[in-house]
Amino acid sequence: VQLQASGGGLVQAGSSLRLSCAASGRIFDMYNMGWFRQAPGKEREFVASIRWVGDSTDYADSVKGRFTISKDNAKDTVYLQMSSLKAEDTAVYSCAASRRLRPSRYDYWGQGTLVTVSS
Predict the structure, then answer these.
(1) CA dist 39 → 2, 36, 77, 117 (Å)
(2) How far is it between the farthest Cα atoms of the chain?
(3) Do residues 49 and 69 touch, judged by C-beta distance below 8 A?
(4) 19 and 89 Cβ atoms separated by less than 8 Å
(5) If we measure between CA atoms, which residue out of 8, 27, 6 comes closest to residue 108?
(6) Quick one: which of 24, 28, 54, 91 is 20 to 30 A from 100 by CA?
(7) Is the Cα torsion angle 47, 66, 118, 95 positive or negative in sign?
(8) For 75-91, what is each residue's pLDDT tens digit?
(9) For residue 75, how many other CB atoms are within 10 A of its CB?
């Protein structure tokens, strides 16, 4: 599975931004699609995930109520709609996918896209 993330940029605090992650390859093998982020000097952290088959979602507490993960199976794309952005949301955001055989482990990773929120 190949993943291509896009949509990052520089925005002001309080604004919105939508990230996209296009998948290709062994799509049928995917179980979960997730977004992770890594801020400068910090470890990578989980942001949100969505089941590839079905609609189950999960969010980190820090983004609940502000971020929404969704997908378009016809386009093999997952989105992360980010609203009410804060300076602490500044990070490199990466999308990842887990396999059906190991649903809890993210084996496939795309390149990151930088989100910078100015206060």
Answers:
(1) 23, 10, 24, 12
(2) 43
(3) yes
(4) no
(5) 27
(6) 91
(7) positive
(8) 999 999 999 999 999 99
(9) 11
